[in-house]
Amino acid sequence: MPKKKMHIAQFLVHGPTYHSLAMWRHPKSEMTKDNWARPELYQHIARTCERGMFDMVFFADLNYISDTFRGSLEPALRYAVQAPEHDPVPLLSYMGAVTSHIGLGATLSVSHHHPFYMARLWATLDHLTGGRAAWNVVTSVNDNQAANYGAEREPTDTRYEKAGEFIDVCQQLWNSWDEDAVVMDRENAIFTDSTKVRRIEFEGEFYKSRGPLNVIRSPQNGPALLQAGTSPKGKALAAKYADAIFAIQPHARDAAAYYVDIKGRMEAIGRDPNTCKILYGMQPIIGESEAEAAEKQEFHNSLVPEDGGMAILSAHLNFDMSTLSPDVEMASRTEPELQRMKPRYTKPSGGSYTAREIATRHGQSVSLPQFVGTAKSVADQMEAFVDTVGGDGFMISPIYCPGAIEEFVDLVVPELQRRGLFRTAYSGTTQRAHLL
Ligand SMILES: Cc1cc2nc3c(=O)[nH]c(=O)nc-3n(C[C@H](O)[C@H](O)[C@H](O)COP(=O)(O)O)c2cc1C
């Protein structure tokens, strides 16, 4: 039986580091003080990923500079720990303008906005991109972000309950226009058939909205929805609404358990498990030989300062890692904030990683596993991961830019295509069509 085809998303950040703190220091990135922010670079990335037939380019996003590590902004600013980070949403229009097929996704937190604005923004983006928009719905975890919006961070369960209601409001607003509402009948002076546009009169526990939306129904009727939660409520939200889930599961055994968990939750609520794709994060490091790839990995990893790793881990955990000894065994820690990443603390062979080891890896790749080797061997590792885990594909993160994405597209994609593991042409033009 032929193997199922993989889905591939390019993981990005609108900043100088993406998901490797080495990136801005890496000589191959040729980064200057301001060229990392130029829109032409992102247009080049979009074109390159479209040449590689990727499902989408996708931006993570945070609305803060973290002072979680040592209570100071200095480590985040000094090491460019996802700081600066410009808003990725305007880039989607830029990237959409020079491409015709690739999906265009970005993260926007529901914690500090109203659903009406988000429904309007994403419907507009879906129009501007011809149905290629994708929205990663997150509920922000870090106190710095809440403080920037003058708020207190809410408990995880409340944030996800609000997120569910938030999406319900958006979906009702997207549905408030029928597909054929605009008739533009010049003779009878009817632009819109008013019987085909409705108020929604939404009154929930957290949000109210009268509607209708003032944007006509978009090509996908709202963007494709992405999610990346790991808590039980986060997984429940993803299972209910997401078209694709991004997961960071460095160990195949945990990735397999996550996959079964999500698909089981979908079945339990009557959703076809195939309608949500689970993409696992990984960081490819490709060389002409195994030795060259290993050397590239060593050099890249050596550019990540330990304190930078501690700072990014502290931000993502919302926990000050300077309060622990770097040699402490992470698997035995009981602090509630540390539990979210708990599966990552145990070595595949058993035993615990130290805080230093976890932080270093987080600085290198936000804990994405590194797939290192020749193009053939990276393709082998991808194939083996999917075989073991049953996942639907990968979200990949470059170690330098430009350059690393091009290597993957030019060397690994053809290898996957030769094996029948990846598409050789797009069969549709919308984000949801690529994810089928
Ligand atoms: C692959 C991946 C990407 C994420 N990207 C973002 C992001 O860009 N912005 C953000 O605020 N949170 C991001 N998150 C955090 C989660 O969406 C979620 O808010 C966080 O993990 C806390 O929820 P949880 O306890 O359900 O995991 C990401 C998580 C994962 C696994």
Description:
The structure is a single chain. With 436 residues, this protein is of the alpha/beta class. The chain has a single domain (7-290, 369-434), classed as Luciferase-like domain (TIM Barrel, Alpha-Beta Barrel). The chain has 14 helices and 13 strands. α6 (156-174) runs parallel beside α7, α7 (232-241) crosses α8 (252-268) and α10 (306-317) packs across α11. The chain is globular. Bound molecules: flavin mononucleotide. Flavin mononucleotide binds next to β3 and β10.
Q: State the CATH superfamily name.
A: Luciferase-like domain
Reading the helices and strands in chain order gives: EHEHHEHEHHEEEEEHEHEHHHEHEHH
Question: Helix proportion of residues, in percent?
Answer: 25-40%
- The termini sit apart by 19 Å
CATH fold group: TIM Barrel
Q: Reading side by side through the largest sheet, how are the strands ordered?
A: 1-2-3-4-9-10-11-13
> What small ligands are held by the chains?
flavin mononucleotide
- Identify the CATH class: Alpha Beta
Looking at how many chains there are and whether they match, the oligomeric state comes to single chain
How many domains comprise the coordinates? 1
How many helix segments? 14
Shape: globular
CATH architecture: Alpha-Beta Barrel
Structural class, from secondary structure content? Answer: alpha/beta
Q: Report the portion of residues in β strands.
A: 5-15%
Low-confidence stretches: none
> How many strands in all?
13
Rg from alpha-carbon coordinates = 22 Å
Q: Quick one: biggest sheet?
A: 8 strands, parallel, barrel
Chain-averaged pLDDT: 96
